[in-house]
Amino acid sequence: MTRFAAIRDEMLRRINDGDWPVGHELPTEPQLAQEFGVARGTIRRAMDALSDQGLILRRKRAGTRVAARQGHASRMTIPIVRLGIEARGDRYSYRLLARDMRPASADFGGPAGVLHIDCLHLANAQPFQIEQRRISLDALPESIDVDFTRESPNEWLVRHIPATDVETTLRADGAQDEVAQHLQLPEGAPVFVLERRTFLNGKALTMVRMSHPAALYSITTHG
């Protein structure tokens, strides 16, 4: 990970964890440069990235403050698979299955291409979900430097990348090909499929298809 990306992620962590709450005035560029031991240009680049995501507001002579955004709430609408499994009292594990770069398709991506990631979430060492994700490298070029061998793209995206809009489709399907293989199901066995697209200010960030053995997955809503 580059120094700029590491600083941006640390600043984002402080915002997400409430160390820098909404309305908090950030330290100045010289103060942050001294803290992190880098040039002011590196700090400015990290702050520009957070500003572009709508997480901070930068005003001349008024300082830089943490913004109140609708996008913050959207994090709560995208669950982290690991936390859901652990909340049931099950032991979580994770396996990266495949990762490669491909050209954009007609319905997703741009000139920089798309990062394809397939991974498996397990509960008590049994397959729970196969996550088949596409990440736009035009929208999220930093994702190419992320090591997804230990942390799933689901968790990394929820923790680090705000989404202003989320589009979700739920449906039943029959397990085929690699989905059946990795979920250890016979061909055609029922699976519950959740497909999601995320956007930041109208720009497509990710597309994902998450398939679960039908007997292991349920949704409960309140209100």
Note down, in words, how this protein is organized.
- The structure is a single chain.
- The protein has helices at 3-16, 29-36, 40-52, 70-74, 81-87, 153-160, 177-183; strands at 56-59, 63-66, 92-102, 114-123, 126-136, 165-174, 190-200, 203-213.
- The protein is α+β, with helices and mostly antiparallel strands and 223 residues long.
- It has two domains: 3-68, Arc Repressor Mutant, subunit A (Orthogonal Bundle); 73-216, Chorismate lyase-like (Chorismate lyase, 3-Layer(aba) Sandwich), CATH 3.40.1410.
- The strands form two sheets. It has a six-stranded antiparallel beta sheet.
- Helix 1 (3-16) packs across helix 3 and helix 2 (29-36) packs across helix 3.
Short account of what is shown:
By secondary structure, this protein is of the alpha+beta class. The chain has 7 helices and 8 strands; from the N terminus they run H-H-H-E-E-H-H-E-E-E-H-E-H-E-E. Helix content is 28%, strand content 32%.
